[in-house]
Write a structure and sequence with these properties.
Quinone Oxidoreductase, Chain A, domain 1; Rossmann fold; 2 domains; 7-stranded mixed beta sheet; 6-stranded parallel beta sheet; quinone reductase (NADPH) activity; Probable quinone oxidoreductase; NADPH binding
Amino acid sequence: MSSIPSVQKVSLFRENGGPEVLRYEEDFPVPKIGATDLLIKNKFAGINFIEVYFRKGIYPSEKPYLLGREAVGVIVAKGDRVEKYNIGDKVAYLSGSTFAQYTKFPQDGNLIKLPENITVEKEKTIAGSLVQGLTALTFVEEAYNVQKGDFILLYAAAGGAGLIFDQLLKKKGARTIAVASSDEKLQLAKEYGAEFVINSSKEDIVQRVKEITGGKGVDAAFDSIGKDTFETTLEAVKRKGTIVSFGNASGPIPPFPINRLSAKNLKILRPQLFGYLAEPGEWDHYSSELVRLIDSGELKINISKVYPLKDYKQATEDLESRKTVGKLVLEIPE
């Protein structure tokens, strides 16, 4: 391991707050690996909104908190008892602490081995699709098993996850009602598979949902917004419908009495991706299906911008101000 430096460049925060607490540090220790660990040198890492929840303190975290959820890189060192992987293997994986030049990773963790001759563009695509692609894939199968003809309400329909949901829902034969804050975003959602659109900045969501569904409401809603949309979603879902709540973009949903679901016999769940990938067979199934969909061209990942690691603060400001569409990715310095 003589060629591995002792310090590295990272993006982190040491206290909770707004984007101003983010720090780019150039002398953060490179993690030491054990007998069953890999050391991965990262090349690209995807940016996900969940980092905002940790930074703001909505989700608790230890400090300093090294950001990141997903990455593509190459194995540069391995422990004595690692047999499945070799130094030089190109890999994609889910892990914390990927906004860094190096990440320590267990050999039995969720990891995909990539072809040696993979292109840089494909590396960016996969780095930017793991969390959101696997979220969409698992949620439309397991959180709510979408059926042909179902009316589905989808918020943030032109974001990184939204554009993937648009495509997968269309593939399942659903009738997607896309919600976004501008006509430009809604046009993009339509291009990616949404059938109906609602501009949340100038239209009444519930009224439009009722018009589109003949007064019944939607079979299910995928709501990543949280506090600001919860009451709307409760109204928009039909009798025996399902609410899949999976984000806090506007803040956490306040506590509510569970008997509010009784009026329409509603189901509500709060899934998280790793709950669907806990067993090796689940990871193998969904990760191979994601790679297959991308390779075949059936699933298009819109990487709208790549920022250098040192500019993560700017990237998250752009993301949080709702200026962006598609997926944002960080390029990790050599």
